[in-house]
Design a protein that fits this description.
The protein has 372 residues and is an alpha+beta fold. It is built from eleven helices and 13 strands. The structure holds alpha-D-galactopyranose.
Amino acid sequence: MGVIEAFRAAFGADPQTVWRAPGRVNLIGEHTDYNDGFVLPFAVPWGVTAAVSARSDGLVRVLSEQAGDEPVTLERLDDAKGWARYPVGVLAVLGDRVGGGADIALTGDVPQGAGLSSSAALEVAVATALNELYHLDMTPMELALASQKAENNFVGMPCGIMDQAASALSKEGHALFLDCRSLGFRHVPLDLASRGLQILIIDTRAHHELADGEYAKRRAECESAARTLGVASLRDVEDLAAALGRLTGDERKRTMHVVTENHRVEAVIGLLRAGAVPEIGALLNASHLSLRDQFEVTVPELDVAVESAVRGGARGARMTGGGFGGSVIALVADDRVDQVKASVSAAYAERGWTEPRFLPAVAAAGAHRVGF
Ligand code: GLA
């Protein structure tokens, strides 16, 4: 059943609007967003569709494939459970401006557990629909910020702005170059096909439960290192050697990653602008090594996927997203794709691991209205 039929069946009328928001992969710029740094994500073709109508009695009803449809009132939003916490969190952040409440039906096709930001897609789909229905006149960036706040304050995940911004702002055929301090952004053409290249997503199917706790820990380490260095955030470190001399242990390693990763994003932007697309592969590899050795957010499933993809002929590969499982992206020449897949599958089989899933990453559009 499609989302409109599901809405009609549950709520007995047509929805007033239907919005779709995508998940994302990140080309490069990992764990830089909450350090005021640079990121370069793009939207994927999978996303969440939200069919929504405004109400006038302050009730919120959420119907999804994953969650039950227990109604929640705007006064008691904390009662929301499971999947409903994301849309309800968005309503909580928008507050009085959406005071009449809403009926919301959701469907999604983002591969679950692959680290492709289905939660950001969910938040942004609901935020963009409410923006239209309640005439909020918010920009896509403001809607991304409200969605991030919902995740930070309501779901309790201290994420940065990358995923929600990618979902709200992406443009088909382009990556989104975002300065997470100024929130200035540029759509960078990502023309791989004419170069005979593609980005292959390798979903490792691994998910490690420590992910959320370790994420918060990394963020705190970065903030502590910035305090020691007397800067507002690690974005501001200019003399890396001098900074490293003043730090020890984990904070030293985290700083090394964040500072070099920001430079790698800028280098990738330069190479893309020059049309030297295959050359970004080396920077993808360097990013992964830094996430493995300095930021320490990889797991064997991610490392083996990267190593075996490169051995199979990929120009470069790296984990994408928060880490501790999820997906790897590999930059691969069209005529090497089968070889790369075979190399990764063999490496997994050798270790007795679940067969990974391969998905082609095509840069898709950001959130948009799809009906009513
Ligand atoms: C997760 C977070 C993002 C970002 C990445 C790491 O996806 O939601 O904000 O920090 O991890 O780059």
